[in-house]
Amino acid sequence: MKRRTFLKASAVSLASAVLPLGKTKAAPEPPSLKKPVRSGPESTVFLAGVVRGSTEKVFKNAVREAANAATDFSWLSKGDAVFIKPALNSGNRYPATTSPAAIGAMVALLMEKGAGRVIVGDMSGIEHVKLTPEGIRGSSRDLMKACGMADAALGSGAELHFPEEAGWNAFYQDMPASGSNWKGGLMMPKILREVDHIVLMPRCSRHVLAGSTLGLKAAVGYWRTDTRLEYHRDASTFQEKTAEGNTVGTLLQKQRLVLTAADKILTSFGPDKGYVMQPETGLVIASESVVAHDMASLAWLLMNRESVPESEKDTFSDPYESQFIVTIGNHWVVGKLGGWLEALTPEGLTRNDINTIWDDRVLNRAYQVFGGRPEINVKTANPAVPGEVEGRLAEMTTPPVLKG
Questions:
Q1: CATH code 3.40.140.10 for 37-395
Q2: DSSP 50
């Protein structure tokens, strides 16, 4: 069955299963550009270019160039343990998940810099993996093998870790910043207490429920099922909780670098399938700031969405354009996480148009909880980045001048 046909059929069946759609608590409006936004610290985002058709060696060199430009690795002492957090939402290959070649390049670079252990791990999405106190359905390990990431990590000297394999009690409560929309702490995997540093390696993609999935959204892969249930059930602040989930103490203390391989971009649908754009020159995007990284990554996603063929732009190839599909989809996720009684009464998840990076509620909340909107410098890490790409991204990440 074709994807469009399947989604249409699913929407109808889900609607009949869960309607009426429960309470619809109004979602907060995104901050208006007319309201002052506090400026934050200056942050640099580095871009390394990868010409389409380049060899894997050239691609891996671009990853290394971006990483070395973004950080001096002074935080890494000989023998330290580093956790690499990819995006392993499914077993589908890059760009539906993080690039295996990028993972391999980063593992090798960390080893060269003196890391004693490099651990690559994630817990996949509820469609594929579910952890409960009674046991596990599905396997993130199998999905990592399927997408090619496992072989790349192991071949470069890393270990693998999958939180669900350690069981329900292998999580600890970590608190987000005060004033968050979370009811309490977030349940995080205990492996993070055993490592010294975290390197986040998301991908650049559209998302059927969230609009986009970049660095901040990737934090979901840490969370135990009960935390994911609260996230989707109390959905009026879904976007705000996405940003706030990155303010837990462990991530603030240990996350050192955010790097996305984005020579391929999932420009529609998402997170597992969609239209793959491969521009003439792709990018590797790196920064020590997850917020600055996501500003540039979202701008790159929007740039590439401009070139999506008209044949891919109907509602069901990019269902985030439909509030109905977003609502039904979130009810379905809540049902998978907490059972169909929970699925009858979640708060409404309100989509927001993301025509520019200034529209994104996730980023707008991130500016508040991370000390202000970063003043971004966009710089190149190698000469392959076209000047027009560098200039356009710099323009798209510069706040508009308000009139009056």
A1: no
A2: E
